[in-house]
Amino acid sequence: MSATPTARPLDLLKRPFEAWNRFWFTPADPTVLSFIRILAGLAVIYVHLAYTFDLYELLGPTAWLDPPTINKFRYEAPVVGPSMTWDELPTLKPFASPEERLQAEAFMREWELDPRMAFTQGRWLTSIWFHVQDPRWMPIVHGIGLFFMALFTIGLGTRIAAVVTWLFVLSYIQRAMTTLFGMDTIMIVVVLYLMLGPSGAALSVDRLLSRYWLTRRALRKGEPIPDLSEPRPLVSANVALRLMQVHLCIIYFVAGISKLQGSTWWSGTAAWSTVANYEFAPFHYAYYMSSLRWLSQNRFLWEAVMTSATMATVAFEVIFPFMVWFRPTRWLMIVSAVLMHTAIAVLMGLVTFSLMMITLLFAFVPPEALRRLLNRIGRNADQFQLYFDPQQAGAARVASLVHATDVWNQVEIAPSTGQARLVTAKGEVLTGTQLIGRLARSLRGLWPLNLVLWLPGLGTRAWSRFAGEQSPEADSKRAA
Amino acid sequence: MSSAELQIEPRDEQVFSNPWPPIVGGLVAIGLAALWLHLMGPTLPLGRAILLSLGLLSVGAGISIRPKSWAVLGTAAAAGFLAMQGMNPPTEIDRGWDSIRLMTGVAATFAAVCAILVTLPRWLQRSIVSLLILVHFGGILTAVTSVPPQPWISNAVWTHFYRPYLEFMYLNNAYHFYSPDPGPATMLWAWVRFTDGTARWIKLPNKEDFPMAVNYQRRLSLTESINQLKPNNALGQLYLQQKMAQRVQAARNTGIPPHPVIDPNLQYREPVPFSKKMLSSYARHIAKTTRHLEDPEQLVVSVKMYRVVHTIMTPKDMLDPKNHPLDETTYVPYYQGEFDIDGNLMDADNPFLYWLIPILREPKRVAPGSGFSTPLTGEMELNNYLQVHAELQPERPIVITEPIKRREQNTP
């Protein structure tokens, strides 16, 4: 019979640090972070495309919040801190000069506060739009911002694009500060953490380029083609995901317990104040109004529905931060969150806010589950064998491109001699532009190449140069 | 050998392996901009902006090639600080490119900290990162507890330590969504008067005006921003009594009564200074962008602003099919003042200022407007006192100076 070893006191002290170390610094698959990047990027592009219609109204020299007003907030707005003693009202120093008194009186007329009571003045705001006010340049700068957001979404030059995207998102937020709502609050959090983490390490053009380069280098050195099916786990990916998870838990918890201050959340009627709010709810649909009238006809039913919705909202927000960490309850919490945000999107019109919250929620999706979902896309895809001569530079480029974009392992690549040839599952042998045409149709990662190949003449010529082969046009000219 | 990374990313995986060409190129561009500013003053701002932007992007490319090198990060930090020297500094006349300098300074400082971090042993790196994580969420904690009633210590730490970080990063939100209670939406209605004496309403927001839902929601936030109000118990009982007396007198003079049902203490709601400034800015915007529908030559002379609360129908209201959310009596307007085209409040002494101007359905009298002594007809009539108030003429005449030139300046 073996005795259980008694834990030494030092081991007990070490455990919290080890747990912290495991929680934050275990390498994680960056696929989830990269998937969040794509979702967030699409939402960011949509939100900032919407600014195109409002560029001058919200950001320009005659905007709703115009430059003189925003500058007053930036430079003069008083910040009143708590009294550092038990006296609630501080003892004010006498004015040093009549000029100081006059300045203070002007400040009091402006801000209805004695400046001596302010801890400091101004706000730490930063925005490109504080300085770009020329109506001719605003669309250009806006377009540059959208360009970098697109790069960020597809994951090209992700490290730079992420920083520039974050700076632009912050710039719009800080300039148009009176037009912000919950969606902006969540968006800046998501983009911040995506910028800090390696969000371009997977599901990105950067990753495709990296795969191409690794394969190309291996072929050049005569080494075996590396297995690139999954990106390397990274500690920085885990840190970014954990930041998202912890922040999301804070958001839900605080949103939940703050509601407990309100009487309507206790009485069960708060849900009505949201679904019957004309400016938010879908009243433009006649059946929506009819549904509310119908529900109101039966008090018991009305109370049951509203109280359930109200209590469920508070209960979910309060328990989510605790239950989501346990495997048996994680999916229940995730699904509940998705349902709640779907209801918010439909019944309150807050679609972009709900999308951003669901995007952040993906931080809790296990990478294996996401991989299974992504692998379903490649299920039952066509299988091929590609034979190529590694000594031929063009053929090596083709093999590298195919291996880089073959994310669902559809193509078995084998060195051989002679011209590069593709053998289908039916035994068909394809070469030249027929080879790449078939692959471009079958390999989902190569679908964008169809756009290039579609260009008459140019596409096949460009491909032939890349593959180091004679173009069909050159063949026919020689024959002539 | 120090383990210079939290996570080693093999250079083999990088498409590009040498960070120095883009870094040197970036430094050259940044240096040129800084030199120009030093020698020629704040001229050629566009050229310097382009040089600085391309230079910083190029340096950023260098970092992305080799992000864990102290030499690369340190050089990038130096490039950032050098870039600040190429940006217009504050002068006596204006603040220069102050917020861009701030942005660049923060980025350069971050790069400098990372340059030191990557040289440290792994255990120390993780310790520092852990500390930064705790500091970060400590700041979030002060933000989420910033809504009154708030802990003194949270307020003190936020004011004295976290404020610059949270404001700069826009992490200052308390996440108190729909709490303590969800409330009705706030709208902004403006009665815009033109030089020919005509006027029209501008009512914000209107769903049909916006191609995308997010634009509409931004207008809802914009109107909500003027809904920051002073608590009446902070105004003082004597002050409120004086206001009430003035309001009652004004009701006798104009026939615009107080609301018969709503608590009188809730009928006077003065906005905080921030909201007053927003109102002034919004009035300027409306004055500059609103056109006369029939005669474009007519200019705006004043804008009367109303903060309008759109009350939510109760389930009992829903039972009556005649009741509808767009019924005029569901709107509760509060007068916010009349502003000139420069956003100056013209009627600070107006007895109706910040008061509720009711829209009521009242019993119809045999002789309209003849007061409580006349018999009722048994019917109800809509009395839109808001329209009555809007059409009241200002006590002081409005003088227009140089209208045509100002109109041309207003056109973007």
Strand order of the largest sheet of chain A: 4-3-5-6
Q: Indicate the percent of residues in helices of chain B.
A: 40-55%
Strand runs of chain A, count: 6
The best one-word shape of chain A is globular
Oligomer type:
heterodimer
* Low confidence ranges of chain A: none
**Largest β sheet strand count, sense and barrel closure of chain A:** 4 strands, mixed
User: How far from one another are the termini of chain A?
Assistant: 92 Å
Estimate percent helicity of chain A. Answer: 55-70%
Average pLDDT over all residues of chain A:
90
Number of helical runs of chain B? 12
Describe this structure in words.
Chain A has helices at residues 9-25, 31-50, 55-59, 67-75, 98-111, 138-154, 158-175, 182-196, 205-221, 235-259, 263-267, 270-275, 286-296, 299-323, 327-348, 351-361, 367-377, 393-405, 432-442, 449-454, 458-467, 472-479; strands at residues 78-79, 120-121, 384-388, 411-415, 421-424, 429-431. Chain A is mostly helical and 480 residues long. In chain A, the strands form 2 sheets. Chain A has a 4-stranded mixed beta sheet, with helices on one face. In chain A, helix 2 runs antiparallel to helix 6 (138-154) and helix 8 packs parallel to helix 16. Chain A is globular, with a radius of gyration of 30 Å. Chain B has 12 helices and 6 strands. In chain B, helix 3 runs antiparallel to helix 4. At the A-B interface, helix 1, helix 2, helix 3, helix 4 and helix 7 of A face helix 2, helix 4, helix 5, helix 6 and helix 7 of B.
Question: Could you provide a short overview of the structure?
Answer:
Chain A is mainly α and 480 residues long. Chain A contains 22 helices and six strands.
What topology emerges from the helices and strands here?
The complex is a heterodimer of chains A (480) and B (412).
Chain A: H1 9-25, H2 31-50, H3 55-59, H4 67-75, E1 78-79, H5 98-111, E2 120-121, H6 138-154, H7 158-175, H8 182-196, H9 205-221, H10 235-259, H11 263-267, H12 270-275, H13 286-296, H14 299-323, H15 327-348, H16 351-361, H17 367-377, E3 384-388, H18 393-405, E4 411-415, E5 421-424, E6 429-431, H19 432-442, H20 449-454, H21 458-467, H22 472-479
Parallel strand pairs in A: 3-4
Antiparallel strand pairs in A: 1-2, 3-5, 5-6
Chain B: H1 20-40, H2 45-65, H3 70-84, H4 98-117, H5 122-144, H6 152-169, E1 185-194, E2 199-204, H7 213-224, H8 237-254, H9 273-289, E3 300-310, H10 315-319, E4 331-339, E5 359-365, E6 376-384, H11 385-391, H12 403-410
Antiparallel strand pairs in B: 1-2, 1-3, 3-4, 5-6
Helix pairs in contact in B: 1-2, 1-3, 2-3, 3-4, 5-6
